[in-house]
Amino acid sequence: MTESTLSADEVARFLRDNPQFFEAHAELLASITVPHPHGGRAISLHERQLEVLREKVRAHELRLAELLRIGQENDAITEKLQRWTRQLLLAPDAAQLPDIVLDGLRTVFSVPRVAMRLWGLREAWLDLECAQPVPVDVITFTNGMTQPFCGPNTGSRAAAWLPEGGADTRSIALLPLRKGIDPQAFGLIVLGSADPDRFTAAMGTTFLERIGETASAALSRLAE
Fold first, then answer.
1. DSSP code at position 134
2. Tell me: the pLDDT tens digits for 88-100?
3. 98 DSSP assignment
4. For 81-205, where are the E strands, in sequence order?
5. Which residue has the higher pLDDT, 28 or 93?
6. What are the structural domain ranges in the chain?
7. Of 141, 87, 135, 134, whose CA–CA distance to 109 is shortest?
8. What CA–CA distance (Å, rounded) separates 7 from 18?
């Protein structure tokens, strides 16, 4: 007679395909023991099943807590965006818009260092501080941006617009300003932080895009 040995996979497959097995051999459930997942004494199969269920519940609770945290953060950012948008809509004079944009980024969104340059403005707004000359290569770079840039400050010429020339700025975000879907930009917002992890290439840019779109809509009143 040839003795055959079942593999672990075959045993598992048999039990999965024959759920009535333990009904016919109920005494096995009480007699089989397995190692405790955290070491120590052996435990019954029933106890191990309960432990597995507890671990799944803990994992679900942690996931739910994380989703709630993300939801609360998103709600807070949405509320800030709405408050900032309201300030822009209530501006009585278009000349105040650049200051409202920058002040809102500092105070509402808690960005420590901000700067902005606008070009292609109407003649009435050419004396604004944000209308200072911008190098052609920066304009070309901005025109080519399809979404905000986030990452380390590697000496970008735009980062030099920040307070103190951006000397202590470790991470930056660049937000192009456009009229609707116009491929040509008319401005660039620079956000900076001394924290190298404040703006990173791996971060999501959805809310930064909303900020750029809102600022673009407001400031487009100044552009030709």
1. -
2. 999 999 999 999 9
3. H
4. 113-118, 149-152, 171-178, 185-193
5. 93
6. 22-90, 93-222
7. 87
8. 16
Helix (H, G, I), strand (E, B) or coil at 171: strand
Q: Determine the length of the chain.
A: 224
Determine the residue type at 116.
Answer: M
Spell 54-81 as b/e; 16+ CB within 10 A means b.
eeeeeeeeeeeeeeeeeeeeeeeeeebb
What digits encode the pLDDT tens for the residues 31-55? 666 666 666 666 666 676 787 788 8
**Three-class SS of residue 119?**
coil
If phi > 0 it is left, if psi is from -120 to 50 it is alpha, else beta; for residue 54 that is alpha
Q: Which fold has domain 93-222?
A: Beta-Lactamase (3.30.450)
The pTM for the full model equals 0.72
- Distance in angstroms (rounded) separating the CA atoms of residues 120 and 107: 28
C-beta separation of 148 from 127 below 8 A: no
Strands ordered across the beta sheet of 113-118: 113-118, 185-193, 171-178, 149-152
Residue 1 pLDDT > 60, yes or no?
no
Query: Which residues are bridge partners to 177 per DSSP?
Result: 187
Q: Which amino acid is at 47?
A: E
Residues 6+ apart with CB under 8 A from 107: none
Question: Helix, strand, or coil here: 115?
Answer: strand
